[in-house]
Amino acid sequence: MAESAVTLQTYRFERWRAVANGILETGGTTFLLLIAVKHYEAGATAKALVASGGSVGLVLSPLVVSWVQQTGWRTASAAARIALIGALAMVVMALLPWVGVFVVGSVVAMAASSSAIPLLTQVYQENYPERKRGHFFSRTVMIRIAVAALFSELAGRALTGHMRYHGVLLLIFAGAFAFGAVCLSRFPSRPLAVSAGSHPFRALRYAREDRLFRQTLICWMLMGFANLMMLPMRVEYLANPRYGLAMGVGEIAFLTGVLPNIARLIMNPLWGWLFDRMNFFVLRVTLNCGFGLGILAFFTSDNLNGLILGAVVYGISNAGGDVAWGLWVTKFAPPDRVADYMSVHTFFTGVRGVLAPLLAFHLLAVLEIATLGWISMGMISVASLLLLPELKYGHGRRQATALVEEVSE
Known about the structure:
Blueprint: H1 5-38, H2 44-51, H3 53-71, H4 75-95, H5 99-115, H6 117-127, H7 133-159, H8 166-184, H9 205-209, H10 211-239, H11 249-277, H12 280-299, H13 304-327, H14 329-332, H15 338-363, H16 369-387, H17 397-408
Helix pairs in contact: 1-2, 1-5, 1-7, 1-8, 1-10, 1-11, 2-5, 2-15, 3-5, 3-15, 4-5, 4-6, 4-8, 6-15, 7-11, 10-12, 10-15, 10-16, 11-13, 12-13, 12-16
C-alpha cells in the first residue's frame, strides 16, 4: 500500500534531521564529557552535570508539553524553536571558554535536544502508520547511528593532541542544532490536544491511573538507573589514569562512539522489525539481558578484547533500546494522549538520568568501578523479573485498555 504524502514528507525531513542528530549524539555520549575530563579537568559534580544534561531536558518535558498545549503551536514548530536554544547555547560555550559556562551550556544544550522528544513521538503517532512505525523510525535511526559513528571517528582524530581547539567542535554542534530546527519546521504537524487541568505536571496522573503503564515505568526506572549510572563511566574508565588505562581521545572515541554505533547500525533494522511484531515485554527483557552483559564485559575487563566485547554488546542492545524507548508508548497510550504518556516516560527517564551519574561519580570514591557494574547488573535483573507477570499484556493498546477498564470496575 502506498504511503500518504504526510508520511513521506515526515520521513524525508526526518532522514535529513537524523544527520544532525547523529552529530549531536556524539556530544551527549562522548565529547562534552571528554572535554570536561581532558581539557577542563572538571570535578565529580561538574562531570556529573555535563553527563546529565540530556536528562534535565527529559525532566522538563512535561512542562514543555504543557507549554505547547497552552500556546497552540504545532508540535514540530515548537520543537524547532527549542532546537534553536540548543544552537545558541553551543555558540556561547564556544565563545566563552570557561568551565562554569561550559557546564551550564552543556546542560542547556543537551536539555534542548531531549526536552522536545514527546512532541516528536506525537508526530510519529500521527504521521507514521501503526503497521510500519517501527520500520520508519528504525530507518532514520540508522542514519543517525551511521553519522554518529563516522563523526566520532573524525572528531576523535581531530581532537587527539589538539583539545584546545574544542571550540570548533562546539560550533559544529551549534550548526547541527540549527539544521535540525530547519528540518523540524518542515514536518507536517498539528497542535496538541489540551489536557484537563492547569497543573504543568498534570500528565503524571496517567502513571497513577494506568496500572500497566505504572508497572512498566517502575521496571524501566530500575533498569534505566543502572544503565545511566554506567554510561558516563565508560569515558571515565577509559580516560582517568586512576583505572590504569588512560587512553587517548581517539581510542576513547572508538570504544564509546565508533564501535557501539557500528553494532547499532547493523542491528537496528532487526530491532525495528521485531518491535512491530514481537511481544513488547519479551523484547524489553531481552534488551535488559544485553545491557547487563555489556556492562559486565566492559567494566570487569582491563584488556582490549573485553572492552571491545562490552562495546559491541552494548551497541547491539542500544539499537533495540532506541526503538523500544522511543516508540513503546504508541502501543499503550490512547492516540491523542501519546505526547502526554511520553512526557511521563521522559520525565522519569530524566529523573534517573540526573541522579544516576551524580550517584555513580560519588560512589567511585568508596567502590571499585567493577563493583558498580555488578550492582547495575543486579538492578537490571530485578527489573526483568518484575516484568515477567506482564508478558501477557505485551501486544499493545487493546490489552492495556482492557486491563485499565478491568481495574477501574
